[in-house]
Amino acid sequence: MNAPRLTGILLVSSLVLSGCGREKTLTTSSDDALPPYREGVALWEKFYYPEARRSFEEALRHDSTFAMAWCRLAMVEEGSGAHASAMNAMNEAVRHAAGATERERLFIGMWHASMDFNPELAGAIADSLIRLSPGEKEAYVFRGTLYEEVDKNIDAALGCYRKAVGADSGYAQAVMKLGYAYSTLGNQQEAVRLMQRYIGLAPDAADPRASYADILVRAGRYDDALEQYTRALALKPDYWYAIREIGRVYLVLGRLKEAEAQYHRALSLLPQSPEIEAAHLVADALLQYRRGRFAEAKEDYQKALAIDSVSFDAAGGLVDALGKLRDFTGAENVLQRIAGVLKRRHLTNSTAMVSYHLMHAVLLGDRRDYGGALAECDSAMGYSLPIWRGAVERQRAETHLAEGDLEDALDDCGRALEINPNSPQVLLTLVRIYHARSDGRMTAEIGGRLLTLWSHADPDFQDRNELLRLLGRTSRGSAPS
Q1: Do the beta carbons of residue 461 and residue 291 sit within 8 Å?
Q2: Which of 114, 343, 411, 454 has its CA 20 to 30 Å from the CA of residue 51?
Q3: How far apart are CA 179 and CA 124, in angstroms?
Q4: Which residues of 101-126 are buried (b: 16+ CB within 10 A; e: fewer)?
């Protein structure tokens, strides 16, 4: 379309979305804004946030009133963890949406409600958009995500993701979401099949390989996962997500220095913001915690909260660090602040409550309130979906172990290992249990598995050093005493 630009008059330009049999309109005063907008959408769908951000900013340079470009920019900022910047962009989208189509207004409205922590309204608007435009694949994925993460209704989520695929069989994001949903249900075979389909739909993109790797991590196949993340980076060497997730695997394997490098590199590749600055400190704090340096971890978590006062990761980590330092009053105060944030964000019935109740269970266990800790585990289980139940069972096992109930602790570990048979945290708990039972054979057998997993762990990795003590060893390679 080559219509002349008109100052102060909105032209409605058409964009044919891939896989969709009919045109959907975009309201902009400049045809020149459409190519970078289209490019930005494609980059957003690949999770290439820095590049998508530049494309949407280019679209807005051509038309500063382009409501959908502002909305997409807000989505990128939110995805990058920059909530304040996201809300600034979203407010611009809302301000300029008056002259847009009903479809655009609903799309902007559902994302605005979500970012404004009103999931009930976001879901209602998404339903309205789907009624207006039954082939709206993004609305189905959006609605499915709310069902999954807020309502804990995985069946309804699966239905939405399938409808998105039905609207566009080549819509890679919907296939990806289906894969994760089946993995969450514990059906790893179907999850792997869908992630392989995702790779086939976008063979040149990095995220399908990284998403496949995520499924492998959930199954405890860490070496295979690292191979897939590396393949993702072969396609896009600066793909922030694959770099970050390699760091998370290194953390599980006790390779703390390597994890540190990966975390900070990944954060440096995202659009910079105060939230990203705080995330650097959270990464440092987490690594200090895993080294057993709880005072240093506490200091870094507090610095992060001074920058980003609503960082869930920083606040949750601070609760753990304060508990280990036996500052139980301080930890409870932080936990109450977290509860307040969850309430204000309408997340008190969401899967976010799993982490909240687990934090409280750990804290109560540190206080030797084992009955309270087990009650918190029960609460966490009530909010959990199958894939996350291993973490709850492991904490239940730690609590039963602490109160001397070794048989129940073993049963808890058995259920946790059904979800991830190679979880180092669960295996370490199992070693603690067998050591408490004076079962030297099983202590050595499970400990040997862990030593293999942690064969490249750093010397100051606290969990491996505890394992060596339990096995009666004092250094790498020494024989049992």
Answers
A1: yes
A2: 114
A3: 25
A4: bebbbbbbbbbbbbbeeebebbbebb
> What amino acid occupies position 129?
L
Alpha helices in 346-461 (DSSP H): 352-366, 370-383, 389-402, 406-419, 424-436, 440-453
Residue 190 amino acid letter = E
Rounded Cα distance between 184 and 218, Å, is 9
| Mean pLDDT computed over 452-467 | 97
pLDDT at 117 over 90: yes
Which candidate, 237, 247, 188, 234, places its Cα nearest to that of 212?
188
Question: CA quadruple 222, 220, 188, 171: dihedral positive or negative?
Answer: negative
pLDDT in tens, 396-405: 999 999 999 9
Measured distance CA(240)–CA(76) in Å, rounded: 14
Count CB-CB contacts under 10 A for residue 131.
11
The token pair that represents 162 in the structure block: 């399938």
What domains, with CATH codes, occur in the chain?
Answer: 18-133 (1.25.40.10)
* Rounded Cα–Cα distance for residues 276 and 390 (Å): 30
Look up the pTM and report it: 0.90
pLDDT of amino acid 25: 83
